[in-house]
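Record 1 of the preview.
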Amino acid sequence: MVDCHYVIPLKMLPLYGYLCIREYTRVNLDWYLGIEHPPWDVTNTIFYVPAFSAAILASGCACFTVWTALEGSEERRFLMIPYVVQMVCLWADYPMLMGGQSLVGGLVNICVTTLLASVTGFTFWMVKPRAGHMMLPYLGFLLYEMCRDAWMYRKWWENYDAWHEAEENP
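->
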């Protein structure tokens, strides 16, 4: 028998937490929009929020699937550790990137989050293959974020070097 009080938190908490953090760091949106973005960037389109929401809800459903598959087992609490850690890392992405105005911090954080989400997806797949498959859209989202942040960092670094040289040789 599934405890009903786990259904909503396991499925909705990841999305709710991320959207709250994102709204909190919107004060630095002008800084973020001032950075050169890749031509394939879709973060400012109508497609981004629904696609991201679906991906993160799928990861919440994967968590719930594993939680219910291991009902009555202490192993399920152990398997939730990488899921919770990667979710906290995801929530820390906006404060690092936009709150701290740090492309390096954001890039390192999203790389760590992607690695932890990959481990989580694999452990979920070992318990229930369907749960591992439900993590794939979320991993795709994280890979997109990682590639976008790496592109923005590279462009920023190229411009930083040009600015630094111009400052040394007036």
